[in-house]
Amino acid sequence: NKGVSAILINTEKGLKVFDNIEKNCEAKELDVSTIMQINMYQPTNKPKDYDRIHAAYREKGFDEALSECSKRALKSNNKNRFKARIVKFLRKIKLK
To answer: Which of 2, 18, 64, 78 has the fewest CB atoms within 10 Å, counting from its CB?
Structure first.
C-alpha cells in the first residue's frame, strides 16, 4: 500500500482534521515547491492528434471518431510490437 503522496492543508478546519489522523500515518512537512509537479501550475501539452480527433468527433460523431482513432492506435501498437519481436529475435540469434 503506497498511500497518499501529499496532502495540502489550506484551512484551519483542514489542519484540525489532519491533526486527528496524523498519528496514524507517516507525515513530513515540506515546502510546497518541492512537491509540485509541472501540471499543477502549467497545463500539459496537447497530444499531437488532438485537433484531428476533435474534428472527427464534430464531423462524424463519437462512434466514428472512436473507430477512426482506435484503428490508428492499433496500427501504431502493432508496428511497435513487430519491432519488439524483431529485436527479441535478433538478440536470441546473437546469444547462440
So the answer is: 2
| Cell (9 digits) for 93 | 540469434
pLDDT given for residue 6 in this prediction: 82
With contact defined as beta carbons under 8 Å apart, do 64 and 54 qualify? no
33 is written with which cell numbers?
Answer: 515547491
Question: Do 66 and 54 meet the contact criterion of CB atoms below 8 Å apart?
Answer: no
Find the distance separating the first CA and the last CA of the chain, reported in whole Å.
42
CA 45/CA 28 separation, integer angstroms: 32
pLDDT > 90 fraction of the chain, expressed in percent and rounded: 12
Nearest to 8 by CA among 40, 51, 49, 47: 40
What does the chain come to in residues? 96
Q: Compute the average pLDDT of residues 20-46.
A: 80
Q: Which three cell numbers stand for residue 16?
A: 484540525
Angle at 88 between CA 86 and CA 90, to 5 degrees: 70
